[in-house]
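User: I'm preparing a small set of examples for a lab meeting where we compare how different chains pack in three dimensions. I only have the primary sequence for this one, and I'd like the structure in token form so I can line it up with the others. Please keep the answer compact; I'll paste it straight into my notes.
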Amino acid sequence: MASVTQVDGEYPFLKQNPGLEQSKCHKVAFTGNFLGVRTHVYWLGSPTEGNDAYVSFPFTAEETQSLLDALLLSQWEDHASKGLLKYDVTTCEIKVVSGEKNFVTQLNENWNPNFLQNFENNVLQTLEPIKSSCIKICKEDILFCVAHGEKESSEIIPSTIVPKDGILIVINANPVEYGHVFLMPYKIHQLPQSLDKKMFGLITQIAVEVNNCAFRIFFNHSDSTCSDQIYFQASYFANPLPVEVLPTVPVYGDLLTTGICICEVAHYPLKALVFISKNLKALADVVAEICSTLHNHDAAFNLLISDCGAKIFLFPQVHKVLMGCHLSAWECGGYFVYHTKSDFDSVSEVEILKRMASISLDDDSFQALKQLCCNIANKLTL
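Assistant: Understood. Below is the structure token output for the 382-residue chain.
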């Protein structure tokens, strides 16, 4: 389990609230406008001229817990202690499925398999006829906001008005794993309907700033979803996901000459690519343009951001999602949640392999995707 560093002095509010009182929740609709909403704001540091802190990765594994990691975990645990979660995910039984792939399964009889659909229906709404954005959410569910700051170092401003552009960090009452939150980008107080380079760069910078190898960010893109709004999810996994430890086959570039490497994940039932770079901006720009192209072609795909932002996995899926066969991003990574004890006990590696292979691209389509990714990377990095 991830731990929280108790931060005194400058940020005393990071201390956990031990109270167990149920918080009263009054939902408020923010109709394309978050003006007046107050929460903690985490301002990301902006590199000064000649400083490549944004370009490269400013942290190392040996450093102590980062400020953003401490903020996220302390706020999540504080909200959990107030009864804002529907269950304690830390008590769920977890096992590794016997076989070669070491798929991970979780038994959670309180889990709502339709929580994403409910989130989109109840929280994210589109108002006709002008297609303006609307969030209908409890103010208590907002943990804090992340935005680009003007100072060189990152800082937290407690209980202040949210900036015009940023990422709202919202608690997920149906967590798949510890620290499960929604990351909701907004621009000029509206929810975006497409993924651009600036937004994706901010998302990847959050992964870098958290600087915790247990922290993963997920993105699900499916033409079967109820909402056109863009949002991400994040949570902590104590161990590497099965897809993260598999061997890879180089497809494009290397870290020395191009600064970015594209590899194919080997020996996996779901065809997948992984993008690796020490240059945060280059990595974010390439993946964002690829995702934008896939979005414009109504393609179904998922993303997994891991290794503190240094690796991004792309999981393309066939259009069987229209028949309800879509896999979530963590399922693509090899982590499955089961709602019933019987399903949890009976699951086998063969069953999971068949399920993943059924939505994987065929060889020709995957080859076309690899060529698209190489062309975009070549255009943006050379």
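A couple of notes for your slides: The two ends are 42 Å apart (CA to CA). The CA atoms of residues 45 and 153 lie 4 Å apart.

User: Perfect, thanks.
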